[in-house]
Amino acid sequence: MKRLLVTLFFILVASNSLAHDMTPTYPELKPSYMEGLLVADFELLNKRNDVRYYEVAVFDKDWNPIPFVSSYSIFKLEYLERTKFSVYIRNTDRFNAMYVCSKSRSRQDPSPKTIISSTICSKFHGPGK
What integer pLDDT is reported at residue 116 of this predicted model? Predict the structure, then answer.
């Protein structure tokens, strides 16, 4: 009985820990309307009521940053708000770019209200993958 109660407690605690959400999980790089660039489209949803800012970055398989262009690299999202955005990378980086990640960012004042940071990554597939 004690074991069941402990298990139930951990299930309930784990269900309360929410992160943000970024879709699709496996985006496809497609040719952009701009020559020499590929594009992938995403949607970001803020499921955390203690966080308002999310930073987006692109990485290779060894987690080295890859140059990219987006409307913003840091997005401000209110609780349960969603936004759509596109990530553009150079055609020459199509074989190197592997992950697009979004990371929650705390406020920059001396006493941030949030301690836990969440990071969600999507893995590219598409041309050359």
Answer: 76
Instruction: State the DSSP string of the chain.
Output: -HHHHHHHHHHHHHHH----EEE-SS-B-EE-SSTTEEEEEEEEE---TT--EEEEEEE-TT--B---B-S-SEEE--TT-EEEEEEEEEGGGTTT--EEEEEEE--SSSS-S-----EEEEE-BSTT-
CATH number at 45 reads 2.60.40.10
Task: Provide the domain limits for residue 47.
Answer: 18-123
**Residue 106 falls within a domain, yes or no?**
yes
Domain assignment of residue 116, yes or no: yes
Whether 44 is covered by a domain: the verdict is yes
What is the tens place of the pLDDT at every residue in 43-87? 999 998 888 999 999 999 999 999 999 988 899 999 999 999 999
